[in-house]
């Protein structure tokens, strides 16, 4: 049986450039669909957050206009309700090790831009996963967490890696680009990522060695299936 470590943001808000806080959390589809697919594959799942705080779902990710309709929203709500006990009993990110798992997975939502982007514990875990060849799946805004990774010499472990994330264009279409302190794509490119953006809101998964990244919520299923296939 394979085991997967979900690293989920504990943030409930995202601080904008003017100092106001935009309510956020994990994006429903990005946690629910991979969790469902990994469960169906028979994988053992551990969920960790900073401080063992129960993660919050972004209410906007359950709105019909975000999911494609009321039926889809209801499906996602029902799935999250079915695993609420798991979400309520997460472990502390400080207590987990990448090497105890076969896969490490980070779902997105704007929340990782608030905490995981500057979390040194998460950054060290990501670096270990990369160096140990543990498949690392990072979705949508979660590649912001890669920014916290550092080697002892101060270099960025992910420099030169082909990757994707929620794009600056998608952020503009969503209406939040001009309000943000920084944008994920811009920061990744600035650190030396080989960034590959696809069409807005269409599935796009990039793999480079052990790093698997998905662009947006619609990439959730494809990224999870790709990880399952890679694990054999």
UniProtKB/TrEMBL annotation:
Gene3D superfamilies reported in the protein's UniProt record: 3.40.50.880
One Pfam family this sequence matches: DJ-1_PfpI
Source domain of life: Bacteria
Keywords in alphabetical order: Glutamine amidotransferase, Lyase, Stress response, Transferase
Domain DJ-1/PfpI: residue ranges: 27-229
Keyword Oxidoreductase: no
Gene Ontology MF term list: glyoxalase III activity; transferase activity
GO CC annotation, single: cytoplasm
Gene Ontology terms: biological process: methylglyoxal catabolic process to D-lactate via S-lactoyl-glutathione
Family: Belongs to the peptidase C56 family. HSP31-like subfamily.
PANTHER family linked: GLUTATHIONE-INDEPENDENT GLYOXALASE HSP31-RELATED, PROTEIN/NUCLEIC ACID DEGLYCASE DJ-1-RELATED
Name of the molecule in the record: Type 1 glutamine amidotransferase domain-containing protein
Organism: Sanguibacter inulinus
